[in-house]
From TrEMBL:
Its EC number is 3.1.1.31. Residues 16-226 form the Glucosamine/galactosamine-6-phosphate isomerase domain. It catalyses: 6-phospho-D-glucono-1,5-lactone + H2O = 6-phospho-D-gluconate + H(+). InterPro entries: 6-phosphogluconolactonase_DevB, 6PGL, Glc/Gal-6P_isomerase, NagB/RpiA_transferase-like. Keywords: Hydrolase. Gene3D superfamilies: 3.40.50.1360. It comes from Rhodanobacter caeni. It comes from the Bacteria. Belongs to the glucosamine/galactosamine-6-phosphate isomerase family. 6-phosphogluconolactonase subfamily. Pathway: Carbohydrate degradation; pentose phosphate pathway; D-ribulose 5-phosphate from D-glucose 6-phosphate (oxidative stage): step 2/3. Hydrolysis of 6-phosphogluconolactone to 6-phosphogluconate. This is 6-phosphogluconolactonase.
Length: 237
């Protein structure tokens, strides 16, 4: 399949409908994994966009005790910090039925992502693969996961032949030091979703697809142009 033809877009008139549809689809994939393989792995992004999705997904009836939930990336802060993605997942996804899920955080308590890297890699390497669902977000600068423009490990993270599945990332637009799953690690999944909202991100995504001007350097292009995992884009106003 050629790049970009690997992308299906689902547009919704409101974001609650988007969250409900994606929650139902992810839950269906997790149930199938549990039926066929006895366990499932879901990797999610942080930020603000996934909150409505998490609220819906947390109520889906399935055997969450056999589901591993981990993060696509993390700000290198403890889960008591309001910037923590683990904090967001615990507050909004590990609730209701999904409270029984097995959460695998990326933050290890080490002084830096570089110091915690071996432990974080060990945690991710211990998970069944391929994952069953990966949920990405996107920033207005065209970053996804912690693939930020100008990131110190960006080239390594986007290397489809790279062997390291978790990498540190420091970048001008990233805020705190970050830790992120690499592109090949994120693409090793049965289902790949990109969740975006609003007109600005709609336009950023359109530019990224065209790859003209600055948009040719948007890191999200690496997800749009790959052919390893079919990508479903979910958009609402
Ligand atoms: O740690 C993070 O921030 C995320 O993993 C990141 O990749 C996020 O998906 C985008 O920055 C969009 O964030 P919003 O949903 O807040 O716009």
């Amino acid at each position: 399949m050629s790049p970009l033809l690997n992308v299906t877009t689902h547009s919704f008139t409101d974001c609650q409908a988007q969250a409900a549809a994606l929650a139902e689809r992810i839950a269906g994939g997790l149930r199938e994994a549990l039926d066929q393989r006895g366990s499932a792995v879901l990797a999610v992004s942080g930020g603000s966009t996934p909150k409505a999705l998490f609220d819906r997904l947390s109520r889906e009836p399935l055997d969450w005790s056999r589901v591993h939930i981990t993060l696509v990336d993390e700000r290198w802060v403890p889960d008591t910090d309001e910037r923590s993605n683990a904090r967001l997942v615990k507050a909004r996804l590990l609730q209701n039925a999904a409270a029984a899920a097995q959460f695998v955080p990326l933050y290890t308590g080490a002084e830096s992502p570089e110091a915690g890297l071996a432990e974080a890699n060990a945690r991710i390497d211990a998970l069944p693969r391929p994952f069953d669902a990966v949920v990405l977000g996107m920033g207005d600068d065209g970053h996804t996961a912690s693939f930020f423009p100008g990131g110190d490990h960006l080239a390594e993270a986007l290397d489809l032949d790279g062997q390291t599945r978790v990498l540190p990332m420091r970048a001008p637009g990233a805020g705190e030091p970050r830790i992120t799953l690499s592109l090949p690690a994120l693409l090793e999944t049965r289902a790949l979703y990109l969740l975006v909202t609003g007109a600005t991100k709609r336009d950023v995504l359109a530019d990224a697809r065209l790859g003209l001007g600055a948009a040719q350097h948007y890191p999200v292009r690496s997800v749009l142009s790959q052919t390893r995992a079919p990508l479903s884009v979910y958009w609402c106003p």
